[in-house]
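Still learning. Any example?
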Amino acid sequence: MKRILITSTEVLMLHFLVPHVKNLLKNGYEVEVACSEVLGRFGELKEVLGKFVKIHKVDLKRSPTRIQNLRGLKELKRIIKEGHYDLVWTNEPVMGVMTRLAAKHLRKKGMHVLYMTHGFHFYKGGDWYNWLLFYPIERLLSRVTDTLVTINQEDYALARRKMHATRIKYIHGIGLDTEYFENRKVDVAVMRGSLGISEDCMVLLSVGELQRRKNHEVILRAMSKMDYSKIHYIICGEGKLHKYLSELSEKLGIAEHVHFLGYRRDISELCKCADIFVHPSRREGLGIAALEGMASGLPIVASKINGILDYTIDGETGYNCSPVDSDGFCKALNTLIADKSLRERMGKCAGEHTKAYDIGIAKKEVLQIIEESVGK
C-alpha cells in the first residue's frame, strides 16, 4: 500500500482537501496529513478527519519571514523521515516551501514530491515585490519538485516556461459540489428577513476574507455611486480590514445597506437569496467562492484577472472589470440590476460554466496524477 503525506494549513484542508483525502483512502492509499494552524480550527480538523487519518500539527506561520517557521521546518523533516512516504503532496506558499526543503534529501532516495499551487503570488500585472520575493523562490524550489500542479491557465503557461519541475500539470481547480449549490432550497423571505432585508431589494453577495487581496473596497465605492436605496451588499468573511471597511461604508453613507456577516457556514443558502455574486479580487488562483455563487445560478460581476478569467466570460456569465475601476463595477452592476431577464440568462450560463470544476472531476484529476506518480 502506497503511503502519502498531504501538507497544508488547517483551513485549506478543511475547505478543499478533505474530499481528496477520503478519495485517496477509498482507492487504497494510506494517507496522513500535516497542517499548520492559522485560523484556530485545528480542533475542527481533528473532528472531521481524525477518525480516518493520522494528523500532525506543524508550527508554521503564513508569513514567510517569521523566524518560528524554522521550528516548523524541523518538525516537517522529522515527520517525513519517520513516515516512510512514497509521495508528499504539499500546498500553499509557506507550507510548500518548507515541505519541499524538508523532503529534498528523501526525494533523492525515491520519494515523490508533488506541489500544488493554488495561485502563484506573482502574475501578469501583479505587484513588483511579489515577483521579487516569491518568483525566485518558486523557481528555485521547482528544481526539487517532481510534479507541479497548477489550477489556472495563466499559472500553467508560466510554469511551463519558467519552472523546472519534472512534470507540470493543470487541473480544473480543487473542486466543488456543483449539484449541491445548484439544487439548494431556501425560504428566501425568511432568510432575508433574518438579515433585515426585504424581498423587493436587490442583494449583492461577496465571500472572502476582509483583506486587501479580496478588494471589497472597490464595491463599496461603486455602490456609493449608485441609487442604493433598494440595494444591499452582503460580505461574508473575517479579517484585519473589518474596521476599515466598516468605517468606509459609514463615510460613504451606505452603512445601513452593507452587512458584514463574518465567517458563515450557510453560503449555499445565502447564494440562493442573493441576486448577483460579486468577486472583485486583485489576485485569485481560481476562486471557489465565485464558482459556488455561479453554481447557484447567480450572474457574476468579477475582476478581470488571472484565475477568474478561466471560468467567466464577459457579457455571458456576467461582467468582468478592472479591480481598481469602481466606475466599471458600478456600470456592470447597474446593467444587471435593471434587467431581470438578463440576470436570469447570465445566471444560467454561469451555472453551466461551473460544471467542469465539479468535485467529481477534480478528484479524478488528482487521483490520476498521483497514480501516474507512484502507482496504485
Notes: Residues 3-175+358-374 form a domain with the Rossmann fold fold (CATH 3.40.50.2000). Residues 32 and 54 are 5 Å apart (CA to CA). The longest strand covers residues 3-9.
